[in-house]
Amino acid sequence: MDIHMTDVMLHIDENLDKFQRKSLENHMRGQIGVIGLGYHDHHPHLMIVEYDLDATTSMELLRSVTAKGLHAELIGL
Predict the structure, then answer these.
(1) CA gap 35, 28 in Å, rounded
(2) Fold entry, domain 5-76
(3) Please, are residues 39 and 47 in contact by the beta-carbon 8 Å criterion?
(4) Entry pTM
(5) Is there a contact between 58 and 37 (Cβ–Cβ < 8 Å)?
């Protein structure tokens, strides 16, 4: 089975503390198609998500963030 991976960067508008970032990370890891994710070390409001193109879309990932009550935008890589 081939996995068609790609990345997207999400800009989270809110200033999240470590607990909130971990909570969002756990939420995102539970989304269908998400393979991995992480935060930019010097810019913790930037989340990079690696996902399977055949299982989800960048818009679905964005909706997963906004469903948590956060404001975010997609930034293409």
Answers:
(1) 10
(2) Alpha-Beta Plaits (3.30.70)
(3) yes
(4) 0.89
(5) no
Round to whole Å and give the CA distance between 11 and 28: 14
The domain limits of the chain are 5-76
The mean per-residue pLDDT over the stretch 27-31 comes to 97
Residues sharing a CB contact under 8 Å with residue 77, sequence separation 6 or more, in sequence order: 6, 7, 8, 9, 48
Place of tokens 């999400």: 10
Helix (H) / strand (E) element for 30: namely: none
CA distance 16 to 3: 32
User: Please, which residues bridge with residue 74 across strands?
Assistant: 10
Identify the pLDDT of residue 1: 66
